[in-house]
Structures are given as structure tokens and as C-alpha cells.
């Protein structure tokens, strides 16, 4: 679907409206169209930007307010009027008021399993920020900040730190708060618990975009690897500032990473420096307080966790494959409330969110423990505390390294809703379905992805973020560079060569890549 460009008047209006509430909370009423969406958190900002886009965003410029709960709960509602000139089939101007509710307390399975429940005529357990309760409380705790327009995004009024009022638990299908759609970092078949074939048939699933992942390690381990691999002895890496650049990223091998994630490597003495000395005892290395391997993983419902299990161990893909290590510190793979990592409680922690993993890595680093975790490369500078991303077999996790075929740890996500004819499905003329289909068709646009990737640029391991799926858009000329991947983040590799998303497939180059990756002799 081609996006239509906003008029200059609309853009000017968005800037003027940023100084005050664009669509005040008091305007939320019975005429508002509510869309309830669940699932993966990695793409929350990208979905939000489809509503805010200057060129074809769903919202009428100058009408956008976004309400967010405190960060620990991580719920949001985009509240605006929808632009019928941009969204074909949507009710005519002046535009309906729409509230897009995104649940972000769980993982990717929340973009799959609740939809199956609704389609099977059963209740679900998802809950969202309750705008009625928030309104009755006078917007309790919500701030109000004008966010200016950018080159590609409209201005809006942000309301952070709202008190967490949650919608009631649904007790019947077609109730007020039924889930209308969801997103998953991997296809529904890889959800937790695994759906049956009959359950999968209840869903309509479309491809979304590519999510690039990395292997995060505690900063002290990162520095030890740099010393042990002779990186700090190089002239271009002999200061701390230089050591936090892509040219100085230390590396682990694929075999080592598989050993760490499967629990076959349980002590850092199994990793050697370039001279064959156990890394904790290598000259120049500051030894950890314990040689044990510490692990920061996600719960089983997490799409990030599913991505790591499938890519590294073929878990969820093949019977008899190695299994990812389970927590041993009181947290569980089924937890929805995090048990914080503590070096005194155990060596392996499972958290419901990526923020939990970042905190876990920092906790282990502060406690002088060497640890490894599971994260996407969507890491801002403020979030990069106590950890760094390692290279794999010499290739750092940057967007250009993916496009050049040097680094292939990415998944292709899916957008899901109930299949036509099943309970909870939406008619083709329903404004909720029209808006959801618009998201499905525009989420992976390179211009939208380019904007959202900007906060993840300039990391020590290179630029990270997400990519448009190969085949749907035109990639850069090979070899890809940092600059052209920033402006046109299109992948050259695919996990969907069979015509459907399959993250158990190996990544395959389907567009031009250099013969020697990014290495040019």
C-alpha cells in the first residue's frame, strides 16, 4: 500500500499544536474507536511512528496525544483523529477519534496466544491502560510535554508516567476489551506454549520487518576479551574511548556462544586468550569475583528469547536440539513479575522485558561477575550501562554487516489477527480492521524504520535496530555502508524464501552482496 504525503498545512498545524494538548483526555468518550493490540515490545516505537508519520501517518496532524504508564508497566495509548484521506476505506473526515492501546508487559506470545483464545471462543488475559479510569482520575500522574515534529514524524503531546489503571479482565468473547491484533518477533508457530496446527489456522498472519539481535556481555567481560585478544595492544584501540568503537569490538565464536547459551560452558576458564591461557588468568585481565558463567535471559513467552533459542540452538525448530539454560535464582520462565538478579541467589536470571535483561547485566557487572544475555540491538546510549555487544566470528552486530552478509542474527516478525469467520474477527468495513491492515501494510517501510533507528546509531559495536524485509524494497548497492543503511535500512537476506515467514530457516542472500562480505582487499 502506497502512503500518501501529508500537505504542508497539516505539517504546519502539527507544529503549532505541539504547545498544547492536541486531543485532550476529556475528549475520550463513547464515540472513540478503541483498538486493542498485544505482543512484542521491540517494535512499539515503530508501530507508534506509523500513526505519527508525516507521509501517510494514520493520525490527522495536530490531533495526537500519547498516554504512557510508568516505565515498569510500559503501557501506551495513541489517541488521535484518523486521517481518512490517508487511510483508504476509513470513515470520512473530519475523522473519527481513535485510541490505539498497546499492551507491552509481556512478550511476543501476547501477540499470538490471546488471539487464538478469542478465535476459539474463549476469554483472554490481556489488559491495557484504561482511559476511562485515567480520565475519571483527572489524568493522575500524567505529565504533558510537547514533542516537536521531525523530518518524517508529526509533533504530538506526550503524557508520560500516568498511573497504571488497567482495563478489567475479559470474561467473554466480543466483550469490550477483546484483543484485535498482535505482533510477534517470530511467527506464531514458535510461540510459547506452542500452538497446534488447528490453532494456527485461526489466525491471519502477515510478515512485518527484520529485527537485528546481538550477544550482550557484561562490560568487564568485554574489556577482558579485548585484552585477551590483543585488541588493546593496537594503536587504534589503546585508549578507552577508542576501545568503544566498532574497530575494537572483541569477538566470540558461534560455537562458544552456543556453549554458553546451552550451559555446556559453565565457567570462563573454558574461554582462552590468544596464547591459550584461561581468560580470567590471562596477563592484563582483571579477574571476576567468580569464574562461573552468569546468564540474563528472558521468559518463555518472549519473542527475543524465542529468537535466541531458534537461531543458536534450533530449539523450538527441531526435536532433540539443545535447550537454552533455565533460571536457577528463583525466577522462572513463566514469570510475569521479575525476580531481580542477585549474585548471591544464583547464576541465571529470567526477566519479562528487555529492560530486565539490561538491569540484570548491569547488576552482574557491578557485582564483578562476567555474564552474557539476550537483547536486540535497539539499545540507546542511556540504556548501555554495564554491558556491550560482542562480535560473532569477527563480525560486529551492525546493520551494514547484516546487509553485507557478514552477520546474520536477525528474525522476521509477523503481525497477527483473528482469521475471517472465527469469533472475534473484524469485518472488512470495521474501522478497527482498516487501521490494523494499514499498520500491517506500512510497518516495514524503510523511511519509517530509518527514523526509529536513529537512537540506536553510534553504539560501540555499530548502528543497530531493524530492517525492511528483503524482496519487498530495493536494497543499497553492494557493499552496504553505514551511511546508506542509515537512510535506507533494507536487508539483502531473507528467512522467508518459501513464501511464508519461517525463522527456523537459515538466512539466505536473495539480493546483491559483496563476494567477501564487507572486506574489500
Describe the structure.
There is one protein chain. By secondary structure, the protein is α/β, with parallel strands linked by helices. The chain folds into two domains: 8-194, no CATH class; 212-398, D-Maltodextrin-Binding Protein, domain 2, CATH 3.40.190. Helices cover 22% and strands 17% of the residues. It is built from 14 helices and 18 strands. The strands form three sheets. Strands 1, 2, 3, 4, 5, 6, 7, 8, 9, 13, 14, 15 and 16 form a 13-stranded mixed β-sheet that branches. Strands 11-10-12 form a three-stranded parallel β-sheet, covered by helices on one side. Strand 2 (65-69) and strand 3 form a beta hairpin. The longest helix has 13 residues, at 354-366. The chain is globular and about 70 Å long. It starts with 7 loop residues before the first helix and ends in a 12-residue tail after the last strand.
What is the beta-strand fraction?
Answer: 15-25%
Low-confidence stretches: 1-20
Residue-averaged pLDDT: 91
Shape: globular
Oligomer: single chain
Q: Measured on Cα atoms, how large is the radius of gyration?
A: 23 Å
Number of helices: 14
Please give the domain count: 2
Class based on secondary structure composition and strand pairing: alpha/beta
The overall strand count is 18
Amino acid at each position: 500500500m502506497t502512503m500518501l504525503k501529508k500537505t504542508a498545512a497539516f505539517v504546519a498545524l502539527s507544529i503549532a499544536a505541539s504547545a498544547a494538548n492536541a486531543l485532550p483526555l476529556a475528549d475520550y468518550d463513547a464515540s472513540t474507536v478503541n483498538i486493542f493490540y498485544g505482543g512484542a515490545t521491540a517494535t512499539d516505537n515503530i508501530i507508534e511512528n506509523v500513526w505519527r508519520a508525516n507521509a501517510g501517518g494514520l493520525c490527522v496532524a495536530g490531533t495526537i496525544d500519547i498516554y504512557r504508564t510508568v516505565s515498569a508497566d510500559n503501557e501506551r495509548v495513541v489517541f488521535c483523529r484518523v486521517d481518512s484521506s490517508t487511510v483508504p476505506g476509513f470513515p470520512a473526515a473530519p475523522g473519527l477519534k481513535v485510541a490505539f492501546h498497546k499492551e507491552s508487559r509481556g512478550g511476543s506470545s501476547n501477540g499470538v496466544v490471546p488471539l487464538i483464545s478469542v478465535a476459539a471462543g474463549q476469554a483472554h488475559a490481556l489488559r491495557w491502560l484504561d482511559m476511562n479510569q485515567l480520565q475519571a482520575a483527572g489524568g493522575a500522574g500524567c505529565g504533558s510535554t510537547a514533542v516537536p515534529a521531525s523530518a518524517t514524524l508529526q509533533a504530538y503531546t506526550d503524557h508520560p508516567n500516568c498511573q497504571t489503571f488497567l482495563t478489567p479482565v475479559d470474561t467473554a468473547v466480543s466483550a469490550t476489551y477483546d484483543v484485535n491484533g498482535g505482533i510477534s518477533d517470530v511467527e506464531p508457530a514458535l510461540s510459547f506454549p506452542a500452538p497446534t496446527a488447528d490453532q494456527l489456522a485461526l489466525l491471519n498472519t502477515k510478515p512485518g520487518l527484520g529485527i537485528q539481535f546481538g550477544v550482550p556481555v557484561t562490560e568487564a567481560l568485554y574489556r577482558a576479551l579485548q585484552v585477551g585478544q590483543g585488541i588493546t595492544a593496537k594503536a587504534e584501540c589503546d585508549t578507552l574511548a577508542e576501545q568503544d568503537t566498532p574497530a575494537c569490538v572483541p569477538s566470540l565464536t558461534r560455537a562458544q556462544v552456543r556453549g554458553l547459551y546451552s550451559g555446556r560452558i559453565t565457567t570462563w576458564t573454558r574461554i582462552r586468550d590468544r596464547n591459550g591461557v584461561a581468560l580470567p588468568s590471562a596477563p592484563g585481565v582483571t579477574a571476576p569475583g567468580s569464574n562461573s558463567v552468569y546468564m540474563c535471559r528472558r521468559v518463555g513467552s518472549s519473542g527475543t528469547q524465542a529468537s535466541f533459542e531458534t537461531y543458536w540452538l534450533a530449539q523450538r525448530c527441531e526435536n532433540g536440539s539443545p535447550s537454552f539454560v533455565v533460571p536457577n535464582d528463583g525466577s522462572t520462565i513463566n514469570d510475569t513479575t521479575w525476580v531481580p538478579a542477585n549474585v548471591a541467589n544464583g547464576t541465571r536470571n529470567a526477566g519479562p522485558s528487555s529492560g530486565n535483561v539490561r538491569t540484570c547485566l548491569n547488576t552482574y557487572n557491578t557485582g564483578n561477575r562476567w555474564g552474557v544475555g539476550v537483547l536486540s540491538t535497539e539499545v540507546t546510549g542511556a540504556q548501555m550501562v554495564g554491558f556491550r555487544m560482542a562480535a560473532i566470528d569477527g563480525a560486529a552486530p551492525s546493520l551494514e554487516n547484516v546487509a553485507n552478509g557478514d552477520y546474520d542474527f536477525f528474525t522476521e516478525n509477523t503481525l497477527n489477527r483473528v482469521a475471517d469467520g472465527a469469533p472475534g474477527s473484524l469485518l472488512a468495513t470495521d474501522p478497527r480492521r482498516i487501521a490494523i491492515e494499514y499498520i500491517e501494510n506500512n510497518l516495514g517501510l524503510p523511511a519509517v524504520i530509518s527514523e526509529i533507528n536513529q537512537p540506536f546509531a553510534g553504539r560501540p559495536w555499530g548502528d543497530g535496530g531493524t530492517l525492511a524485509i528483503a524482496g519487498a524494497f530495493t536494497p543499497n548497492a553492494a557493499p552496504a555502508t553505514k551511511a546508506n543503511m542509515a537512510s535506507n535500512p533494507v536487508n539483502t537476506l531473507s528467512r522467508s524464501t518459501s513464501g511464508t515467514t519461517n525463522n527456523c530457516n537459515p538466512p539466505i542472500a536473495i539480493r546483491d552482496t559483496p563476494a567477501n562480505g564487507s572486506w574489500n582487499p
